[in-house]
Every structure is written in C-alpha cells, then in structure tokens.
Amino acid sequence: MRKSNTHLQKRYFMEALKNAKRARKKQKMPNTEQSHKTCKSAIFPEQTIMAQSYQEEHYHEVYFEILGFEQSSAMQIVSHYAKECHVDLKLANSMFAQDLQTKNISPIATHDILPTILSQEYGIIACATTQCLETFFKILESLFAERLLRGNIVAFALQKLRQYNYSLCVAESCTGGTLSAMITAINGASAIFKGGITTYSIESKQQILGIKDSIITEHGVYSEACVRAMARGVLDLFQADIAIATSGLATEDTSMHNFLHLPAGMVFTCVLIRDKLPISIAHNYLSCVDGIDYKDSRVFVQQAASLQALRLLLSVLES
C-alpha cells in the first residue's frame, strides 16, 4: 500500500534531523542554519533556497491557531516540532497581558492587522527565522490541514466561505458594527459579504429583523433566543447563505432590559446556515481579564466577541 504524503514527510523530517545532528557534531558547528538547511532540503527539495547567514537573518513572529484546540492542548501537540525546527513558541495571552500593562493594543505581527485581544485563549506566537518558520508551518499543514489558521482570522474565514461558495451577512447589537468593519477591511470581501446591520435598540430589532415581543419579554434582549431570531431575520433581509448575530453586554447594564442580571462582558452569538439548525454560544469576555479599565472594556468586548463569532463560523463550516 502506498504511504501518504504526510507519513513520508514526517519520516523524511526525522531522518533529516538525525543527519543534521550528525553533521553538526562532525563539523563542530552548533549552528541552527545548518540543521535547517538539511531538514528543508530533505523534506522539500523543490523549495530549497540559499539562506543568508544566521547572524544576518532576522527573527519574525507569526500568529497561529489550531481550530478546535485551546492554547494548552495545541502547545503540547506542536512543541516537539517547534523544538526540532528551532522555533520558539509562546502563548499569545502573555503578549496580551504585556500590552495591557503598557496600554499598547497593537498588532501581534508586522503583517497582521488584528489586535492582540484575539489571542486570549486560542493563539500561539511562533518566533524564528523565515526559513525555520516555513519548515515548521509546512509540518503543521501536513498534520492539521484545514484546521491550521495562520495569521489573519478574518481573511481565513472569508477564504473558507469562498471555497464553499457561501455568502455572508451579519446582525449586530452589542458589537456595534465591529464585526462588519473587520470583514470589510479585507480586500475582496465584497465577493462574499452581502451586508450587515446594527440593530442596537429593541425597536430596531423588532421593526427591521422582525423579533417577536414574546422573545424580548420571556427571554430578554440578551439571550440565545434573541440572537437566533436576529440571525433568521437578517438572513431573510439580505438573502444570504449564512448569518451571524450578536447581542450582549459590552458594559454593565442595570436597566430593566437586563432582568436576568447578566454580568458585563456576556455576549450571545449565533451562526445560522440556511436550511440548517442554528448554532449559538454564550461567553463572558471579561471573566478572565484583569487590569483592563472600565472605559476600555466596551471596545475589548466588541472586538473579542466579533473574533469569537468568526471562530464559531469556522467550526460550523468544518463540522
């Protein structure tokens, strides 16, 4: 029986590492570039490139996730491959904590437009030379295929929708158009994204999306029932294939609308594919965050909930 490419790549990779170690001992050169050259040429001979000297080559940081795995699990799985490829790994939430201390919410990689908050529970940062990173991610691609998310999660989600030939629309409440802004910031989004609407008030939810009074009075505007109804309403409004809906508390709400006394940070999200059952989640995005100012919590929740909505979309597409 013919062995798979994944099996052969893993075998070649381990053989290349052994050869590299022998070469380093023989030449007495504890040089990471030498081992990388040997590994790369053994696994991907057609992509072998003459590298610059190790001293001249710059280190880069690349954000990645493995869909369906939280940080700790993903780290355990990939740490062995990272070590062999001379790639340093760190949990992205440690970078988030540093940004909170310096009040510097900035992109986590030079090529990535996403803020650091996306990485709180899922992301990992890989740090190495360009060639070491290429080798490392080639191995991860062979192991995880479509579950490997590298770089921009928004662009990744739109690429998946394009593969499935699905159109997308969104109905937002507490996220206030943040999700739509993230989507439309990606070049080519118009081929996928039909539109979004921010129904921030109860009246707009009822008048534009057709939310029934019974849903508001029995379940509340901050509820799974509400976001499911919002998803159905916006799906019909834009005649798209998939809808995402969000509703929750970006900050504290002591009004009668929060009769269930839900805490600040609690957001309900729904993904609905036409002719399929809706999938919804509820999550408190402030429950595990320390040190964030009250005035900053609104933007934090809006961005974190929008990115989590895209993760939910990707998990639904892969299910």
Would you write up a description of this structure?
With 319 residues, the chain is α+β, with helices and mostly antiparallel strands. The chain is 46% helix and 17% strand. The strands form two sheets. The protein has a five-stranded mixed β-sheet with strand order 6-5-7-8-9, sandwiched between helices. Strands 2-3-1-4 form a four-stranded antiparallel β-sheet. The two termini are 30 Å apart. Mean pLDDT is 79; it is low at 1-10, 26-56 and 94-120.
What do the pLDDT scores average to? 79
Alpha-carbon Rg, integer: 23 Å
Low-confidence stretches: 1-10, 26-56, 94-120
Report the helical percentage.
Answer: 40-55%
Quaternary organisation = single chain
Overall 3D form:
globular
Query: Which secondary-structure class do the elements indicate?
Result: alpha+beta
- Tally of alpha and pi helices: 11
Identify the strand order in the major beta sheet: 6-5-7-8-9
Proportion of strand residues = 15-25%
Amino-to-carboxy terminus distance? 30 Å
Main pleated sheet: 5 strands, mixed
Number of strand segments: 9
H-E order = HHEHEHEHEHEHEHHHEEEH
